Amino acid sequence: MNKRTFLKSLVAAGCVAAFSLGSFSSACAEEFREVTVGVVGDYVAQWDTVNELLAPEKIRVKLIKYSDYATPNRALADGEIDLNAFQHKAYLANDIERNGYKIVSIGDTLLTPLRIYNNKEKIKSLSDFKDGDIIAIPSDLTNGGRAIKLLEAAGLIKVDPTKGYVPTKLDITEYKVKIKIREAESGILARLLPDVAAAIINGGNAYTAGLDAFSDSIFSEDLNPSTNPQVAQLVNIIAAREADKDNPIYQKVVQAYQTHETATTLMKAYKGAYTPAWKGAEKYTY
Fold it and tell me: What are phi and psi of 69, to 5 degrees?
């Protein structure tokens, strides 16, 4: 081995080690193919595992964090990032319909239920809700619709059954308790919790806010496909531009995500708040 080859091997070895340390040097960037992935929130431990698995392939995922749900698809469509991983299939379908994005799912990732997180100074259980109590829900159509259905499942309202899984407040046909529903961007719902009786928050934003999926919530969305036929549309995905859906580098990112190692990280790092949801993942979780 000549000196040049030896030095390159040392750099490559150091790059592999850097993934577990959360660092990445300019020398590594020259050796590795970087793939930018847009995400929302701080639930990113699984991507450290993905990077460790991709290191022998000389591929590295760089996360680009966004604070809202509107930006990642726009950024992907405009070519600012290579992939994104923040949304479920129903959200993607609605965003494509509204904005005409040429983006597609290239791989399933995880499932996480919406939960009702209670202001513990006001509410201890579902039976404590009273007329006039405010419940904050996501303002986007798909997650807002999910939240309305969750309030129905909790026995607080009734909804027009013809509206499917994305009803709006206008589709509520009966208030069993005369609650007030306040809509807000998903990323700020946890911050509203001190000012409302409860908030319906998704797993990523709840984790980012330091909320425990079990001890800090009083009701959870049903993600059993045998009792909730909409579950397939609630699976989170990795998205790419249509023109890049067969890109072999991006396919390797998906393959690294859909592994036993990543499934283990998802289940351990988030204390059961997330369930691996790709085909075959059930053998890791049940």
Answer: -90, -15
Amino acid (one-letter) located at 247: N
**Count of C-beta atoms within a 10 Å radius of residue 49:** 21
The answer on pLDDT for 215 being more than 90 is yes
Among 181, 198, 221, which residue terminates a domain? Answer: 221
The total of structural domains in the chain comes to: 2
| pLDDT (tens digit per residue) in 54-66 | 999 999 999 999 9
Q: Is 122 exposed, middle or buried (0-12, 13-18, 19+ CB in 10 A)?
A: middle
**pLDDT of 225 strictly over 90:** no
- Is residue 19 domain-resident? no
pLDDT at 165: 82
Report the chain's C-alpha Rg in angstroms: 21
Q: Which of the residue ranges 11-20, 64-73, 156-165, 217-226 would you say has the lowest mean pLDDT?
A: 11-20
pTM > 0.70: yes
Other Cβ atoms less than 10 A from the Cβ of 63: the count is 14
DSSP-derived pairing of the beta strands 33-40 and 83-88: parallel
Q: Which domain holds residue 207?
A: 115-221
Asked whether residue 159 is domain-assigned, the answer is yes
214 shares a domain with 124: yes
